Amino acid sequence: MQRQGTITERTMTLSGKTIRVIAAVLIAALGVYIGFLMPFAPDLGSIGHKALMGLVVALGLWIFRPLDIPFSVTAGLMLAIFLASGIPSANVFSGYTSPAIWILIPALFFGFALAQTGLGRRLAFLIIRMFEPSYLGLTLAWVIIGIVLSALTPSITVRTAIMTPIAVTCCDLAKLPNGSKGRALILLTAISMAILPGAGWMTGTLTGPTLIGFYNATEGLQGIITFSSWAQVALLEAAVTTVLLVVGGYFVMKPSEPMSQSITKQVFVDEYRKLGAWSRAEKWTAGILVGAFLMFVTAPLHKIPDAATCLLAFFLLTSIGVISAQDIGPGINWDIVIFIGAGLSIGSVVAFTGTSKWLASLVVPALAPIAHNPWMFCFAVVIFLFAWRFVDIVIMIPTEAILIPILPAIAAAYHIDPLVWIGLFILPINAMFMNYQNSFVLVGESLAKERGWRPNQLLVYGSIYFVASLLTLLVVIPYWIGQGFFR
């Protein structure tokens, strides 16, 4: 029986891999068809068709990942197609010279420093020991921990890696059964708080540097994203969404019986005490990261670019020994860095090839029925992007790369400020109906292993987040109108 079950599992796995390969091949075939038969001529030129071919082929490989090809390798293939199509290297590799990539790389090392020094774990227990070990107390603790860690690093992966093991420990101490509602509530709240609050400011998630790169690569959008302009659009949205998700998740998923009395507040106090006194590395790291955050907030006053602040903080962390030469390679996920750099290049490529103008000629008229009404426009876009997230699983980077170059045309036609798209992108980026949609949920699952949640519980929690996002729009749309984002 055991052998038969193993064979069945292998058959299902092979079948899934085969489907992924077939799907990627079909999409690649579509890309080749576009590139060589040029179905959109004469509106789109030959070089534009070739660029579209490279993008379509890459999308298929990114979405389905046949043979587990890394994102960076597929990005390299896309760039090779661009170069072979005659697109200048200055455009093809523009993402790697963007200030955004030089915000991203040091900022990822901020997360490494939090984990390497133990500062992240210390801060988490410093906060959690202040709360009574109840469903409500732990829920509130995750909110505060998420906000604090989001201020120190944009790396959600690091925040998830810090918070998930602590949440699992809490569940074990409280004797919450594996797969129970109570365990799912504690774990999913911890992971969602690692994800959501930081969306309110530019350096709170990797979405910040990514969107900066896309906007700065688009004619007419350069420099409009700053720390203050991002907060003007997204801070209220992130706050309302966080509150609604926490409240909704608590009341929908909280068990009727109270948490076991076997866990007391003293347990958290003892765990914090085990960490010992603050080390020199922790103190310096905390000072540098807090200083960097304050520099971001006050950038309109001192005019120092955020990339310069990040690079200086990176230098300081290295000079005090928190980051060593041996850490440069394994310290961060270079696969995602190379992938994002390639994604940031797409805006320059589609502009050079005329693809953005061609896309604008299709998308701008299609928006006419809803674009003149901010309520219809925002709800339609967000709901569509939530549905699209079942397909675009790569944190919407391909979608942003395609849409952002045409935002100036949308703004000219309908007087919709391009900044408002930050808020429209953020909500669906964090979709979590199913684990494959959200890489940070996958990180949490891998850390919790068999002590995590069931798929149906994630679906319920993801649905609560979707409803919370729609309710958030009821609050932020009037605010956006008042701020002049719709005229």
Structure description:
The protein is globular. The N terminus is likely disordered. The protein is mainly α and 487 residues long. Helix content is 72%, strand content 0%.
Q: Any idea what the radius of gyration is?
A: 23 Å
Classification by helices and strands: mainly alpha
What is the beta-strand fraction?
Answer: under 5%
Question: What is the share of helical residues?
Answer: over 70%
- Uncertain runs: 1-12
Major beta-sheet overview: none
Count up the domains. Answer: 2
Mean pLDDT: 91
Tertiary shape = globular
How many β strands by DSSP?
0
The rounded distance between the terminal residues' Cα atoms is: 67 Å
SSE arrangement, N to C: HHHHHHHHHHHHHHHHHHHHHHHH
What's the number of helices? Answer: 24
List keywords for this structure.
mainly alpha, 24 helices, disordered N terminus
Secondary structure blueprint with pairings:
Blueprint: H1 2-37, H2 46-64, H3 71-84, H4 89-92, H5 99-117, H6 119-128, H7 135-152, H8 156-173, H9 181-195, H10 207-216, H11 227-253, H12 265-274, H13 280-297, H14 299-302, H15 306-319, H16 334-353, H17 355-366, H18 368-371, H19 374-388, H20 397-403, H21 407-414, H22 420-429, H23 439-448, H24 455-482
Helix pairs in contact: 1-2, 2-3, 2-16, 3-16, 5-8, 5-10, 5-13, 5-15, 6-7, 6-8, 6-12, 7-9, 8-9, 8-23, 9-11, 10-16, 11-22, 11-24, 13-15, 16-20, 17-21, 19-22, 19-24
